[in-house]
Amino acid sequence: MKFPQLFASGAALGAVYALVGLGFVVIYRATGVINFAQAGMVVLGAFLVYGATTTLDLSFWLALLVAMGLGALLGIVLERVVLRRMIGRPVYAVILVTVGLLLLVEPVVTTIWENPATNIETPWGLGKVTIGSVNILQVDVATVVIAGTVLGAFFAFFRYTKYGVAMRATAIDQEAALAQGINVQRIVALSWAIAGVVAVLAGTMLGSGAGPATGLGVGIGIISLKALPAVVLGGLDSPLGAVVGGLLIGITEVLMAGYQNDVLPFLPDGFAAVMPWVVMLIVLLVRPYGLFGTRDVRRI
Amino acid sequence: MAGATRGMVRRYAQDLRMVPSWRARGFLVALFALYLWLPFQLDDFWASVLTLAGITAIGALGLNMLTGYTGQPSLGTAAFIGLGAFTASYLGRPEDFGGLEWPFLAYLAVAIVLGAVVGFVVGVPALRLRGNYLIIATLGLVFVALYVFKSWEEVTGGNSGVPMPLEVNLLGLDFANLDIFGETLGRNQSLFFLVWAFVALTALLCKNVVRTRAGRALQAVRDRDVAAEVVGVSLFRTKVGAFVLSSAIASAAGVFYGIWIQYLVPDDQSLGLNLSIQYLAIIIVGGIGTIYGPILGALLVGAMPALIDEFAGQLPLVSESATESGISKPALKALLYAVLIIVFLVTEPNGLGGIWRRIRDYFASWPLSR
Fold first, then answer.
1. What average pLDDT score do residues A173-188 get?
2. What is the pTM of this model?
């Protein structure tokens, strides 16, 4: 009865990848750059929730809400203070600034929270759901449900609201969007806020032990970076691609960890952890813009 | 008249000139004198710091050919550093440690060739990738390479790493323990001689590529690749060539890194994403698309952690270890490093080279300067 447990754990990890990936995609569509600081926001988000539940003694849901608000605010501030100054500069320069922001997170977090607990306290804790002879971690179920709800809400937002339409228009052509009276600056700020919110959520899930995670710690930054292959798999500018790619990568990664000795016995241990990157490299060999990404047309 | 047009290039021959002015020639002579004099003055700590900075400068010069001159950003440098280091280790370490005990030049040459070959293998598929996708693909390369290093225990020692007691004999001189000008130097001071000679050699190679036909092709591809192709530059040759060159140089830097560090463990700390980021940061902090930029950047970024180690204890609020209150040294190091990257990129896109050019221009046109 290994399979259902692995599948649940994989689905939880995939849901986290999907959340982080959505953050990558939203910012990529608004600014044309991959925001590595997203992984830092995941770490920071987890610790904000942890800090709010322990130091401020808030209930989990209230702490999550406060942290999501702070995450959104931080996203907007970062864009306004740092990234806006980088407009018009080469892609690698902008990306390196976001990498610099990512590097800031670890020393700050380890200095403020010197000896954190191993997990964030959640209402469901580390209990298990038992169906027949199958045990599934409650945290995995909660992750899939919460991530599904939030992702559903965002897709409805993209599809049906005025701001959602404005975001899609801005992603296609900023100047044309401006000409239609869309406040592009506000849309960019909104994109960063959304990225902040999903990052905090993903961090909380990872920090409370979802998937095969290590629990609360700066190591979840590296885990959430694996949302990048997931996003590339789907195409950098496709939100649906991020979700599909995230689930696909998460589930196959965990299944690979469980079954590697049966499927690929000739490979050394630990292949599952790099499998997302290998899959991504293979996909890029065949389709340089991902599975659902748009090819960019270039002029001379 | 000469004064007014000093900075202006009027003839092609002028553009080809390696050292543009008498002043620059004098500067190079002074640098050479410094190179001969310095190792005799340095204590072990500073010799070690400057040697590492030199090794980093070699790798950064290589990456600069790819990113600065060809416009292909790469986060894959760490993979090639590791490739060079472990190739050197396997070929050069004594048979007691499971190596082949080859001499210095032999393992260096093989590491460089291997770096070039792997660079070719990576460069061909990378032709189709641009910008963001290229960065993520090269990032993937680092994780895959790390997995290979960890798994190939025969060569790399796996999780426990491998010692690298390599011999460094060249031209009859033992660069692990140099006996020169009637004095015997320590290991770090001897390596300083070897490493900085290679920095000069690499800089010369890069300068020669940049100022000739091949280098102009690289820069044309960087500025607009489609237009470059239209005027007859082969994208395949140029981009793949840049990958091959930069990987070969990075692999050579890896060899020296292995010699310097003496014991290498393949993990996220030593050969992970952070190392790649460091190289990209160096060329940007130093001044991208220049020859002296990577060397300046390597001196600043390479020396910074050592400086913090040395002097941070005297600052308030800094604790020796993570268990005491206040910010720990490693955290402070990481913090300053991140702040350095962000501040430089946001406020000074041309790096140290740009700052230097502004100062020079200010005094060149004084008293009319603003």
1. 87
2. 0.88
